[in-house]
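Predict structure. Chain length: 226.
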Amino acid sequence: MPRRYFDQELDRLHNRVVEMGQLVETELQQALQALKTLDKGLAKQVIESDQEVNATRFSIEDDCFKLIATQQPLAGDLRLIIAVMNIIVDLEQIGDKAKDIAATIRQVKRFQKTEKPSELYTMGELVSTMLKQSIQAYAEADIELAKQVASREVEVDQMLDVVVNDVIERMAKEKKEKKVTVSVGILGVAQHLERIGDLITNVVERIIYIATGSVQEIDVDHGLPG
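Prediction complete.
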């Protein structure tokens, strides 16, 4: 009976992490939509919804501590619980970055006519897809999908370079302080997206650790070895 109860609690923990991942995924999608449409109301909604993400993280963390304290998990189970604790921290930080993107909308909103690099939106779509797939990889314990997600991190870095170069060129040409301010806001969004890519890479590393028991640091230029 104790083991059956423990297994049920592990399943519940697994489901709660998936649910948190889906919350963060929605938060990021809404932040990107707010960026695209410059919707201040949606941006405000993203900022407010981040509180639910934070609360969920601490609630799951509390469940993890209770399982460790009351069930005395063996090595494999303890590995899973510790990995989950790392994953939810990364997910919370992804939510924080989505909130930061939403907060930037207020800065960019004033200058709707400012052209933004197309790579910025492509970058957003990419990290959103990576996050969705990383949650799926966790839910299904799909190591191959986790590796595929990791291999795309280099694309995020390349897009950041393109956006940075574009913004720097614009700032060099612009002499109006307000337009320079918008360019700085765009650069900030790109940096937040790049950081989200890093955090997603952390998540898939933990997924692989849960499945294999081996810590494999991902080479962002080449992904994980097959």
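Summary: The chain has one domain: 2-212.
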